[in-house]
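Human: Not sure, check this?
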Amino acid sequence: MTRRHAGAGDDDMPTTTDDLRRCYEVLMVQPGASQEEIKQAYHDLVSVWHPDRYTGNPRLQRKAQLMLRMINEAYARLQAATPPEPARAAPPPRRAARKPQPADATFRPQLRPVGTGLTVHGVLARLPMPEIVGGLILLAALIVVAVIVLAVYQLTTSPVPVALRLGIPPM
C-alpha cells in the first residue's frame, strides 16, 4: 500500500506501509496509535534527544541531532498519513434543574415566644432523670468494686505480711 505524505522530509516520496511501520518504531508506539498517542510519544522523545541537552559533549550532541532528525521525520510522516481524529461530540445538553416543589403542608416550624430561651431548670426538666440516676449509682458501685479488687490484689501480692500492713502487732 502506498500513501502520499505532505511536507515530511526533504523529498515528497510515497510513504509505504513499511515506511509507516518504521515511523511507529522510531516513535515507540503501536501501529494504528491515535494522533494523541503519537504526539505524546513525539514530545517525550524530543525532550530526551534534544541536542541542547548535550552542549557540553559535542559527540553526544551530534548523535542527538541525528536522532532528533529521525524523530521529526517519523512524526511528520505519521501526521500526514494518519487521518485526523473526528472532533469529540458535544456533551448532551443538561436537563433543566429540578423545579422547586411546594413545601410540605405538614411542616410547621415551632416558634417559641420571645424571652423563653434555654434555662437550667428547663433543660433539667427534660432530662430522663431515672435513667441518669440509675446510671450514676451503677457507676459508683463499679468504682467501689474496682477499689476493693485493687486493695485485695495489693494485700495478697506484697511481701510484707498482711497483719503488719493492717496495723496488727505481731504476737
